[in-house]
Design goal:
The chain is an alpha+beta fold. Helix content is 43%, strand content 29%. It has two domains: 64 residues; 112 residues, Immunoglobulin-like (Sandwich). The strands form two sheets. Strands 3, 4, 5, 7 and 8 form a five-stranded antiparallel beta sheet that branches. A three-stranded antiparallel beta sheet has the order 1-2-6.
Length: 234
């Protein structure tokens, strides 16, 4: 039997409207869900979590900066300590050398020696013609006796291929320059400055000790020996 027109209107003709309505409802649902995800409220503790994380980052950065500074200080302290230890080692070595030196001259078994220049050392100054000298004078022959006198130096030098002697007065830039005074029982260091004329090549240094009483004593040192190999004029 064929369906009546009124039955088709009530059934078949109503299906497209229901489908459209369902599509609209689905679209609205998805749109609302997206808006809620984008603009909806965050968890109640989100701000606290962000602050905690930021504070943790700051603390870690501070720890890193502190550790770097601590490492820098430690390295600097270690460098300074190494320098101090090296200085102490040098000081100990110097003191041991001094003790050995004293024992050679004042010890019970020391060999008796008269007045002499134990060592002569010259060091260059800023002016290439000026040299500072330190002479170590010793004697242990007359124990307990005070030795007094003067020290004078002269230099044998080559000037234009010719050898000549530069006297104390010339080296001191004073014609009648007095010698360096000394007064000691066993040893003493005396010092002063010498001025070499320009262009000369020193070869030998002669130290002359003139005691208050007794004969003068002369000792020679090569220029290389007295200067440790430093050439004149540098």
């Amino acid at each position: 039997m064929r369906a009546s027109p009124s039955h088709r209107a009530a059934t078949g003709s109503g299906h497209p409207r229901i489908g459209f309505a369902l599509l609209v409802l689905a679209a609205l649902g998805f749109g609302g869900w997206g808006l809620w995800r984008a603009y909806g409220p965050q968890p109640a503790n989100a701000a606290d979590l962000l602050r905690q994380q930021a504070a943790r980052i700051d603390a870690l950065q501070q720890d890193v900066a502190t550790l770097k500074r601590s490492d820098q200080i430690s390295r600097q302290a270690n460098t300074e300590l190494q320098g101090t230890l090296a200085e102490r080692d040098e000081e100990i070595a110097s003191l041991r050398a001094d003790i050995a030196f004293y024992e050679r001259f004042v010890g019970a078994t020391a060999q008796r020696r008269g007045l002499s220049v134990h060592e002569l050392a010259l060091e260059p100054q800023r002016d290439p013609q000026v040299w500072h000298f330190v002479a170590t004078l010793t004697q242990n022959l007359n124990r307990g006796a005070v030795n007094r006198g003067r020290l004078l130096l002269s230099v044998e030098a080559s000037d234009g291929g010719r050898m000549h002697k530069l006297a104390w007065g010339e080296l001191r830039q004073q014609r009648n320059a007095p010698g360096i005074e000394y007064s000691f029982k066993y040893f003493q260091q005396v010092e002063g400055d010498l001025l070499l004329p320009a262009g000369v090549k020193p070869v030998r240094v002669i130290a002359r000790l003139v005691p208050a009483s007794g004969a003068a004593v002369e000792q020679g040192f090569t220029w290389s020996q007295a200067t440790g190999g430093t050439p004149a004029g540098r």
